[in-house]
Structure formats: C-alpha cells, structure tokens
Here is the input.
Amino acid sequence: MAGRRRIRFRLNIPAQRFLRYYQGTIQWVQVRAFDGTRVRFPASALRRFVTEDGVEGTFEMTIDENDKLVSMRKLDST
Here is the structure.
C-alpha cells in the first residue's frame, strides 16, 4: 500500500445528467475533494453507485503512486 492515498469528495449528479456519462458522451468526472484537490477519474468508476435519482453521496477513492484509480467506495447515502 506504499504510495497509495485516499481522497474524499461529495457528488450530486442527477440521473438525467449522469445518463450522458453512462452513454459515453462524457467519459471523465472532475471533482474538488474535501482537501481542495481537483481529481479527474473515469465516469465508469461510478456506474455501480447509480440509482434512479443519479449519483449522490460522499465517496472515497484510493489512488496509487502513479495517480491511477485503485478503488472507489461510497461512505454514506446522503
């Protein structure tokens, strides 16, 4: 786990908007983490978190020493 770091952020993407990500029209999501860092990652990383309302909640992603996404998890449901 050396070199890995965790980044936390909040998302609120309504279903209609996320549809563009899901269809591949938009491939990347960019967020500002709680620590102020801007992070860009593939929209496909969020597919398992999509509900009929879209994607909403607080998330934590782990990235490796090369800034590649290792994992993503949802921390809450609000």
